[in-house]
Each structure stands twice: as structure tokens, then as C-alpha cells.
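Recall that a protein's primary structure is simply its ordered list of amino acids. Everything else, from secondary elements to tertiary packing, is in principle encoded there. The following example makes that idea concrete.
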Amino acid sequence: MRSFWLSLSLLGSSLQHVLGAPVIDSKVQAVQRSLSKRAVAGPKLNGANFPDPAIINVNGVWYAFATRTIGSGIRIQVATSNDFNSWSLVYNEDGSQHDALPNLPSWVVQSAPNTWAPDVKILDDGSFVLYYSASTTQDASKHCVGAATSKNVIGPYTPVGDEALFCDLSVGGAIDAAGFNDNGQRYVVYKVDGNSLGNGGACMNTVEPLSATPLILQPVATDGFTKTGSATTLLNHQGLSDDGVLEAPVLIKVSGTYFLFFSSGCFTTSNYDVSYATASSVTGPYTRVATSLLKTGNSGLQAPGGADVTMTGDKIVFHANNAGGRSLYTAGLTISGTTVAIS
């Protein structure tokens, strides 16, 4: 029965108006809402603030990394789970909360680093690379992306070099980096933070002319951070319908198809969501699906976004607004052809 409805969902999402507006079958919408309601779990960690979660499984244990908590000196939070259901924050032996990135490079504003959106990937030699965003001393109003390494998955991670990995302030800086290993060829995908140059409105980019916020793919060496080859633009926002924002890109490959997950809309509004696009080549072109995978109202969620997806495409973690913060939520995924569904 589920396969029938997945097929129906695929058919419904492929029908579009000439201008690109989706034609959505009401039965498909009802089934998607039912699946979402049944499958989404959370808030986890007793509702603790845990934004922009990233996950990795090492030796059967799940590790989640998250943006700092406002008011805390912790730069990168860490939580663990043995079953993907029950999660616990990681604490040090002295009872203090563990910080995966206790030391910062010289390019970061030390007093107010505003460390955001981490991602951790395992390297060929068994060590780990951490990508993170932080405020730059060149312009404290903007972020750049850095990399750090560790032999231990929870760190502490040591920053790589004295310069950011991605930091073009002329286009707004960079945030939300995530690694991707495509059969030995490594990449980093990230967001050009163009809305930091915007003219105002939600997330500074709903007053025209809108700034671009492209999602960029950069090939890197086996160390996870040395750039090799040319960067490629994968996707950009569709104007005011996206609040002038695409962000939080995550790239996976399942059965020969590349899936680019991302959030659109301003994270401070109910427009924030999780969506995806697909391609037959890692560099695209990517075809964006017509409807969000997760949005406000699904399972009672408010502004779900900042997601990460397992490399096998069967699990997703994300945050959603909860009690004044952004809490951790989880769900299962089912991928059929080029269609992703909460399962």
C-alpha cells in the first residue's frame, strides 16, 4: 500500500503549471501528512536548544553536532545516541558540557564567534574533519567557513590554518558547509550568505533587488579541506517565494541519483522548511521538487529546517522551533527513484 501512495506522490509532484506552481493531489497531501505525523519524533534532548544538527555514525553509535547555544560559551555542541531514539548531550568528566571546538583560529572573532552549522565527516585514514561557520575579524557582521580536524569523533577539533576555507565577503561570506564523499572524490557544499548584503525584510532579503544565496559545490582533496578543481553553483533561491534564501545544503547519492537537501525561507518565520532537488550528475543540473519535505504544520512542527541526512538516505535530523529555542527532531526517510518521503 505504501508503494502505491509513493507512486501517486511521484505522479502528483511531477504535474506542474506552466509557471512552475505545483499541482498537488489532495489524497497525496493527506497521506504525506499522515506519514509525517506518524514518523517525526521529538523534541529530543528534553527540548534543549540544538540548532542545525549534523549526524554521523561511528562504530554503531550516533553522534550529533549543533550550533552553539546563545548565552553559552560552548562553540559546537555534541550529543550521542545508541538507537537514534534516545539522545544525550555529551559532558566532560568535570560535569561541564563538552565543546567539540574549544579553540578558534585567528580569523574568527574570539569574543563573539557565533559558531554555526557544524558538519563532521570521517576521512580515509579514520580521522575526522569538522566544518563550521564563524564570524570573521574582517567583518564581524559576516560569517566564513572553516575546517578543523581530530582523531576522535567528538574532538577536541584543531582548526586548520589561519585562514577560512570559504570567505568571499564581496558576495556576503559563507555558511552551512557539509562534506560529501562520492566514491573517493570528496566535496564540500555550502551556502553563499548573500542575504547578509540584502536590503531588508525577513532575513534581510525580502526587499528587492534580492541578493543571490547560491549553494556551491567545491571539490577537495582526501584531507577534506584542500581545494581542488573549480566550484560549481548547484541551486539558487526562487525569489520572494523563498524569502530570498536557500541554505543548509546536504548532498547524498542513492542508487545513482544525487539528492541535494536544503532549507528555504527565513528561519525566523513559518516559511522555513526542508526541501530537496535531484540530479543524475554531482554538478547538476538539479531539479527542485515542487513541495517541501517538511514544513510548518507537519506533525505540529514550527519552522523545521537545518537538516542533515544519513549517507544511505534512510534517516534525517533537523531542528524546529520549540519553547523559544530550536530543538532536535528525527525521522525516517524512504527514497523511491527520485522521490523522498518521511517514513
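The chain has one domain: 2-342. The two ends are 13 Å apart (CA to CA).
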